[in-house]
Amino acid sequence: MKIFHCEIKRFKVITPQLCAICPRIERCRAFRMYYRYNTSEYISFVTKIVEKFPDKYQMEVIFMAEKQTFVQIVDQKTGMVERVADMKEIEALSIEDKLALARSKTLYVVSHKLEPVIRVEMKRVNITPVSYKQETEEPPKPETKPEPKPQPQPEAKPKAKVQKVEKQAEIPMKPAPKGKARK
């Protein structure tokens, strides 16, 4: 069994549990390879989860596009797609095999192959605003005496700012020497 590693570095090994909820599943190259080899395991995991928790999860089908040149072989009588072959596979056939393949069939060159993939998504629930019931009976209120209104107090005058005077240390200065100044 081949071990596939996730392109997102927080998930190391690809498992159905991680890939089923990954938001970038349709663009992931590693999941595309994993899905090609382990389709039945992945689909069984997703269906079990949705069956186990139907009120919580829902399945969402997305289309994973693979960009590669394919040849779509369509039967002309029924109009049904018989198969999708890789362009390299068609080129490798001999001329006689190509003619036999094209008899009573129409060949279309296709640039993308879409593959449906099931993804698990949590159900969206609309939350309704909660309203609480108000009590119909009001508790009895104690009687209150009307309080006398306080008389306005006269406004206080703002105090003048008091400046603190700090004494600076006095440095005694020596008088300059008398006489000629030296150079």
Condensed summary:
This protein is an alpha+beta fold and 183 residues long.
How is the secondary structure organized here?
Blueprint: H1 16-19, H2 29-37, H3 39-52, E1 57-75, E2 81-86, H4 87-92, H5 95-102, E3 105-122
Give a verbal description of the structure:
With 183 residues, the protein is of the alpha+beta class. It has 5 helices and 3 strands. It has helices spanning 16-19, 29-37, 39-52, 87-92, 95-102, and strands at 57-75, 81-86, 105-122. Strands 2-1-3 form a 3-stranded antiparallel beta sheet. β1 (57-75) and β2 form a beta hairpin. The mean pLDDT is 76.
Determine the structural class based on helices, strands and strand pairing. alpha+beta
Strand count: 3
Biggest sheet record: 3 strands, antiparallel
How many alpha or pi helices? Answer: 5
Instruction: Spell out the helices and strands N to C.
Output: HHHEEHHE
- Poorly predicted tracts of residues: none
Instruction: Give Rg in angstroms.
Output: 43 Å
Beta-strand content estimate:
15-25%
Q: What is the percent of helical residues?
A: 10-25%
| Order of the strands making up the biggest sheet | 2-1-3
Specify the overall morphology: elongated
Could you tell me how far the N terminus lies from the C terminus, measured between alpha carbons in angstroms? 99 Å
Integer average pLDDT = 76
Task: Quickly list its features.
183 residues; 3 strands; alpha+beta; three-stranded antiparallel sheet; 23% strand
